[in-house]
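Changelog-adjacent note: as of this version, every example in the card shows the full chain rather than a window. The one below runs 510 residues end to end.
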Amino acid sequence: MTDSPDNIAFTARAICKSFPGVKALSDINLDLKVGEVHALVGENGAGKSTLAKIIAGLHQLDSGQMLIGQASYKPLGRKNAERNGVRIVMQELNLVSNLSVAENIFIEKLPSRLGFIDYKKLNADAGDITKNVGLAEMDVTAQVSRLGIGQQQMVEIAAGLSQKCDILILDEPTASLTDTETELLFAQIQKLKNEQVSIIYISHHIDEIMRITDSVTILRDGKVVSTNPTSELTAEKIVNKMVGRELEHNKLRHNAKLGEVVLRVEKLTRGKKVRNVSFELRRGEILGLAGLIGSGRTETMRLIFGADKADTGDIYLYGSKVPAKINNPRQAVKNRIALVTEDRKEQGLLLPLSVTKNISITNLPRLSRFGWINQSKEKAITADYVEKLSVRIASPHQPVENLSGGNQQKVVIAKWLYRDCEIIIFDEPTRGIDVGAKFEIYQMLDELANQGKAIIVVSSDLKELMAISDRIAVMSDGKIAAEFSSDNFSEEKITAAAFSEYVNQKKERP
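Full-length structure tokens:
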């Protein structure tokens, strides 16, 4: 039995798309029903985001046909797609950093009065929108550049939900969200379904796919592997179809050999974001850092790396009784500290440069002599890390901006591995990375720790932290609220600790 044409919101037939050296999509067919949540899943580089961008008018197809309802559809740009009722919330943030939250949400439709922006109405309307996605306490007049990456992603989602549409594309919308924020987003998705909005949902979180979607299309190497009702699938079937191979069970850390203390943080403070934070990190240890978005996790890591300056507090390295002088990232790197940032595009990569240049840039003296870079050695180093991390590239000379998000993240990791630092901080290392690549990164973290590296992993995914950490510290409202050893991990305890300081504040109010 076939679906009635009136029940089909969008159709794609034989869609093909190539980039220089890469066949991104090959003969893609897709049917999206009215009021349906349809998942697109696949490993990084499988073609999910490319297909989404073609539908949203951000890329032009090479060949094939698209229909909205029964009418031909070939958008010439994002604005044209939006006029046809298609909107996208992308994995890559698309905010104007020097504008306010409210201005970003309504940037295409700012309310005016007598020829001037009506800021009273703008802020009131923005407040209503942000409440719907769990940002009730956010100051909508705040400049976006002052927000953390997770909060910025929530603003991006709020902007996408603020305008009416018939087809909404959500590309990794929960990548940096807490469980509470994710639940609020899911409630909005259900509301849109009830209003007969059709949703294309891209996510690496298989549990989300199983819970909120009606159909699943699996892509691999730019081709459709299968399309099925979600009810006919299991998480294991989806993963096996995605990667085309059986995945071993994630190896947990067992009997880690911990060495001496290599990092000791004492009463580190910066305003209200980081308050008297103290902890130790040992050689060969993976320390997980949990907490809600805005709890001070990233801010603490930036202080350790010298990207921000602390008001008070000290950092001691490698057993020294004298505080280390780390006033900027250059000094941190000299002290063999690396930071894999959560915002890879803005802070981790030089997007126009090649894969090779992005990897080698952290240690050019090692490759050069008399001011000249040994290109054959540089090429060999790149090939080594591309193989080790399974980075999918067309060529080592390929600009990093043309890689998928997950492969970009692997390049960021590769450049710091090449620098051979002793203390490595990973801030949301698997954000936007597929399940196969996540497993590879977990193995890499385990290997690095076994080699004696001292590792901190900041993550919003509690299951991830519990799988890879020897110990977990929990931040709440700028403080270390609790620490748990591996034999005492539980989601309930960690979540309670993450909320503890916020709960205490409410109790203290008169």
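Structural remarks: The domain at 5-243 is CATH 3.40.50.300 (Rossmann fold).
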